[in-house]
Amino acid sequence: QVQVVESGGGLVQAGGSLRLSCVASGDSACMSSISGMGWYRQGPGKERELVATITSGGRIRYTDSVKGRFTISGDMAKTTVYLQMDSLKREDTAVYYCSADGDLRYCQGFDDKFWGQGTQVTVSS
Q1: Are 31 and 8 in contact (CB under 8 A)?
Q2: Residue 54 DSSP SS3
Q3: Statement: residue 125 has pLDDT above 90
């Protein structure tokens, strides 16, 4: 069974920073098959949206609203990713979810994307 755990959320004032961490764990064959990890978020009354992703080959992409402010990094050999969030705005308030993309030949599940339970980020004035 794949486990994905996020940490680092909290309350911060606008203009401040937070650093989120995510670790995926499970069977060694499954962990070795993970091809990418990423961050998504869901704000109040909004749909879940992609924030940033990174592949095992180091390819990175961001949604336009966070470019220049957020930085994704990771150690894919340790199935660990981070999200450095700077210059936070009130509109960044959301539950942030980490995902890991595995190969169902090696990872037990119904979908090749595995999710954490989320960590709350609240940006205040």
Answers
A1: no
A2: strand
A3: no
What pLDDT is recorded for position 18? 98
pLDDT 10s digits, 16-60: 999 999 999 999 999 999 999 999 999 999 999 999 999 999 999
Closest Cα to residue 44, out of 96, 84, 94, 112? 94
Question: What is the distance between the alpha carbons of residues 119 and 1, in angstroms, rounded to a whole number?
Answer: 21
d(CA 11, CA 3): 25
DSSP-derived 3-state class of residue 32 = helix
The pair phi, psi for residue 28, each rounded to 5°, is -60, -40
Is the CA virtual torsion 110, 114, 116, 122 positive or negative?
negative
| Residue 67 amino acid letter | K
